[in-house]
Amino acid sequence: MFLSSSDRKRRPSLNRTFPGLCMVFVLLILSAGNLGAQTVATYNFDDGTADGWTSFNGATTPVASSAAAFSGTGSLLTTTGSGGAGGPSISLNGILQPGAKYTITGYVQLTNGESATDANFTIQRSDPSCSGGTCYDTIGTYQVPVSSSGWAQIGGSYTVSATATGLNLYAQLVGATTAQSFYLDDVVITETAPPPGGTPVASYNFTDGGLDGWAPFGSATLTNTVSPLSDPTGDKSSLLVSNRTATFMGPSLNLLNVNGVVAGATYQVTAYVLLAAPDSSNPTVTLSTKTVDCAATSGAFGTIATSGALSSTAWTQVQGTFSFSDLPGAPTNLTLYLQSSSATDSFYLGDVAISELAPAPLSANQQDNSGITSTFEDGGLDGWSSRTGSSTVTNTTATAHSGTHSLLTTGRTANFDGPQISVSNKMYVGSEYNISGWIKLLPTDGSSHIINMSLQTTIDGNTSFPSVTGYPGVTVPADGNWHQISVTGYNMGSAYDQGSASLYFQTVPPSGNDLVSFYLDDFQLTYVAPPTIQTNIPSIFKSYEEFFPIGAAVDTTDLSGPNMQLLTMHFDSMTPGNDLKWSSVENTKGVYTYATGDSEVGLAECHNMRVRGQNLVWATGEQTPAYATGDGTNSAANQTVVIANIQEHIQNEVQHFGTAVYAWDVVNEPLDPTQSDCLVHGPFYQVLGPSYIDVAFKAAKQYAPAGTKLFINEFSTTVANRQACLIKVVRELRERGVPVDAIGHEMHNDINFPTPESVKQAVETVARNFPGIDQQVTELDVSVYNGGDTVSNFGNSIPASVLAEQGWLYDKYFDVFRELKGKLSAVTIWGMADNDTWLDSFPVDRTDYPLPFDMNLQAKPAYWGIIDHTKLPGYGLKFSITETNGGKGDKNTRVFTMTATNGDVGPAYATQITGFTLKQIFGKHCSPVVTPQSSFPVVLGDIPASGAASTTFEVNFTGCGEDALFTLSAPWNSSVYHTGTFFLPVLYVNRQLGW
């Protein structure tokens, strides 16, 4: 197959275990970086109560009020004391953790008639480190202006003292000298960083005399006992683990039974171990996991951490982090257990703690998806600021894209010094956004500048600058006009610490500095909700159950959400598009990275889908690491190295996946019709000649499970010279005993090539030459562009007529596939929907639309061509004929009118009549002359639903006897591939039409 840059996407995935391979690590071992924020408390007062808030420092008792609200229907109303002091308060004891970091925000508005003043949030902290035992900590800005005309946000970031013993949050007015009333609303407290060691989730000290939910792993014995030494907390209660006869045996805990352990979060496990007796071999202990889910029904095993050497005279700590996923299916068991390098040593376990280092990412319905709109019409900066603090951003009325105001950035000191705005809690990892702003350059001097829109995100001290616009950016002329910088469907892929994400505009000159000033207006950041698939249409694979499986190429974006729903609804087979290729699984010799492929194959197993493996050896060397072909020479020494590389790689991969993969493209795209031996003279060929194919197939046959289908996979097999090479090469391979038992026809087709008839001929030619050989269509897609056309680009405006044409072509292809039942064992489509296709970057960068579903995962004509052509535009198109006159007074000339009447499904695009033929069936031979209204094909154009179009034909019957009889046939087509023939069985010369 061909490869695009978009096909190279990689994301962390869940590992799994397959038959024939030792158990592998199932859990994602993640760093302790903060992957997201967790809301720990909210107060919106919409239920008509004060939500537990009370009076502080002489203020009135706060009450819920419906007179004003920042959002929802209610807020909290409080009046300060007579001197202006006091306000509403809430205890945060048990809500905030010592050492953790939070954001605490709320909104304040004065009641009508109150004089403008300032406000803030403050925490009264009881802490032995404070003078007198009490401190008062301002949250965020000390003086936030507040008034009765609108809501103002107060609050900010707060880190809890590790020695705090009491926390009381209150809102107050600053500067008030008399009693004033104000509303408080939408108080939100979010943990942005856990306390050192994480937020406690569970601890086990065994002081209650029981096992605390722990159970033996294997046949070990667990006993609650008193250890000979106190653990680091000073406690001697522990579990004695004895009667071990294998290294894996030890104590275990089902983490799914631990309250607070959820998928997607990151946890730290700490435990202490003491040997029951000395052991000079210095054994270690390992924290391990066993996960059982639909893809690993016998369990997949992983390692969290291994301790240093254990001792019988001191406790040894073992500590590590873990996370788990609900993909490809939620675990039914997640067991944490301790094993030891010694198979027989007994040991004590004490002081086990599990803490959360990072919460699970927010789901879409928990996010703030309100976006950002900046029009600057209020005269302010709308949250924008100078990125460096050196440049100046000002609200101006000098010009505007709409309205009367815009934002002007001047005095820039660097290319990256431009206007920025925080997108923290406005953009979330894994979500999609449309982002747009209008730019006007200053001064108007006719020069051109590249404007780039980027993000700055920081996580765990690491800062990155992902470009939002395609790099380097958009060329904007200084012509005095406004120019839009717009990006649709931007997928946020950068995690960040709370408050550490901003979006900015900058210049990117070819070299040096470009410090041009510019205006910004009408900025819009909009959340794009995930599409919803149609559940009321027929499943593709179920519609073809009597013929063959229907597959799709997948990547990690198809493992969850609507893409996964679309995949599992319409396909019963899958091919990982890139994640099983050599460079993906063994880019460094002997180092295997199966995680991504495991996730995809695991999803297939969880949904009873078949899996094709693509591929083991790529003849051209694409997606193949350099080491695979050694030093590239054909020396005897290097040939030995390369043969071993091929055998080792194939053995490891096919045994890893075992029976989970039923078919492998063993050698991909080996043909080159320009070579005398018909083979690509790629890097493997340069070393081994044609025998590299023998080595690969024999290794696959030796190591893959019995019954695995072994394919040669090739493109353009409908082209005569490539088809001839395919027959020649396969015959030669089989004659020398190479186990090629299947052929894959890729079928990356264009809208004008190949014809459905040539597809049928290609499969039948192979079947005729190799009776009983398995054949599949392995990578089907249909580009909307003609073959060889690298100029056209429909962009976001694909004509409906082109989609209809593509739909009718899919219909013809699948007609052929059904006719080939028994010769084709499967059809795989190279993707599912137009939002994810390699053709967007091949052969040039442009938008293509080659798949059954559109960019919003909705069925399009291509889908209906596969499922039901009666739903295609133009279905129901019919032709009729009438005689309009006797032929302009000439008794030998008659005029016939052909009328095309469309059905009611949709337009019949580009309808035309391609012929008008009379065949004599009776009487003395004669040759009528047919004169169409225009040259053939006679174009009727686009006929709307339930509409009609007509054309006339003159027929001169001079020389024909009165008894002459004819048949009339008039072939026609619409949308190119919607074809038919109007047929009249008898046409009389001696009378008008009367049927």
TrEMBL record:
Residues 385-406 have a biased composition (Low complexity). This is Beta-xylanase. Keywords: Carbohydrate metabolism, Glycosidase, Hydrolase, Polysaccharide degradation, Repeat, Signal, Xylan degradation. Belongs to the glycosyl hydrolase 10 (cellulase F) family. Its EC number is 3.2.1.8. It is an enzyme of class 3 (hydrolase). It catalyses: Endohydrolysis of (1->4)-beta-D-xylosidic linkages in xylans. Residues 534-869 form the GH10 domain. One of its GO terms (biological process) is xylan catabolic process. SMART domains: Glyco_10.
